[in-house]
Amino acid sequence: xxxxxxxxxxxxxxxxxxxxxxxxxxxxxxxxxxxxxxxxxxxxxxxxxxxxxxxxxxxxxxxxxxxxxxxxxxxxxxxxxxxxxxxxxxxxxxxxxxxxxxxxxxxxxxxxxxxxxxxxx
Length: 121
Hints:
Blueprint: H1 6-18, H2 22-35, H3 40-52, H4 56-69, H5 74-86, H6 90-103, H7 108-116
Helix pairs in contact: 1-2, 2-3, 3-4, 3-5, 4-5, 5-6, 6-7
């Protein structure tokens, strides 16, 4: 594998994630971020793994950086909204789901989360 190819590390991290090898997934996402620190998708993907392993503070940090790198990345808002919802920070969750929907009209998961919260999308 090309040690300078961030996407190769991302793809392998995706595979590790599917295999529930979270430690290796995080390591490969971290390598991808080191190679291409401006790509918010790598940060968001690592945030998803952190969230899935209960490392909420690290997940939020990655989601925030992902949004900072690419404020138009709807998935990062959605994923951060899920964390806020889990933490019962419902105002923040709603704002993130609405932003995800604004950036990606018709975003079904954001619509479903807003409806689950008893809100009109």
